[in-house]
Amino acid sequence: MRAWKPEIAGVAEVFHADFLEHVYPPHTHDTWTLFVVDAGAIRFDLDRHRRDAGRSTVGLLPPHVVHDGRPATAHGYRKRVAYLDTGALSERLIGHAVDRPAIEDARLRRGIEAMHERLAHPDGALEAETLLGFVVERLREHLTGRPAQPEGPAASELAERLRELLDAHPFEHVSLAAAAERLASSPAHLVRCFTRTFGIAPHAYVLSRRIEAARLRLLDGEPAARVAASVGFFDQAHLTRHFKRHVGTTPGRYATRPQPSRSGQAARTRSQTSRGAAKLGSER
């Protein structure tokens, strides 16, 4: 069992657990309970209706509605839960979630799994926010039966304004929640507009800018640890992981000056010897 509070707006708690026999008594939460089952199956009552959730579904339990939980098989279950604030997903959708707490959507599930992977790393906050935006938008579409509606300024204009904001602080953490508030939009809409306009998600854009800055500083001879801290990476391991994925080698190998080959060394030696002999001859 593992639980923690991530440093991103919208997620109140992350909870991973592997239960064999544990039975939850009837209870409620102030948050949305978004969960996926990685092994086994869960049986629960929600608003006095029997429900089941397995590996092919995404479970969404609304706030303030009584529910319980227990293993649906003799082998228990393993789950990952993200408790979402009502600021991320409106309470107006509670009734829809009561009617349909188990959602069949492979793309949504993959997004939730990727979000959990990033939430487990302190250096993945912006990417986790990006994935959260996708997840919340997808949940709204399922609950309302309608695709996301355009909001605020035109997509390209909003994308340009977000890029200007990111470019102004390339080595600092700019949260999507703060950017959305400043630009009078929502994190999910910002991600959608930016990705459609530039062909890259905001977190990937920021990462590429930092990798480019790291390359130049490494070539100037700065140590990798200092470079990592100066261009916004969590630590040297964080820099190394992303640098290798983008550049194809580690920061240490990238900054190593090439050594002359044996044939090149021999040629230079012969050249130096010839120049020395010529100089000696002229002196005579």
Q: Quick gist of this model?
A:
This protein is of the alpha+beta class and 284 residues long. The protein has helices at residues 94-99, 106-119, 125-144, 155-168, 176-182, 187-198, 202-219, 224-230, 236-247, 251-254, 262-283; strands at 2-4, 11-19, 24-27, 32-40, 42-46, 49-53, 58-61, 67-71, 77-84, 102-103. The longest helix is centred in the C-terminal third of the chain and has 22 residues, at 262-283.
Q: Could you explain how this protein is built, in words?
A:
With 284 residues, the chain is α+β, with helices and mostly antiparallel strands. It has two domains: 2-149, Jelly Rolls (Sandwich); 202-254, Arc Repressor Mutant, subunit A (Orthogonal Bundle). The chain is built from eleven helices and ten strands. It has helices at 94-99, 106-119, 125-144, 155-168, 176-182, 187-198, 202-219, 224-230, 236-247, 251-254, 262-283; strands at 2-4, 11-19, 24-27, 32-40, 42-46, 49-53, 58-61, 67-71, 77-84, 102-103. The strands form two sheets. It has a six-stranded antiparallel beta sheet, with helices on one face. Strands 3-8-5-6 form a four-stranded antiparallel beta sheet, with no helix packed on it. α4 (155-168) packs across α6.
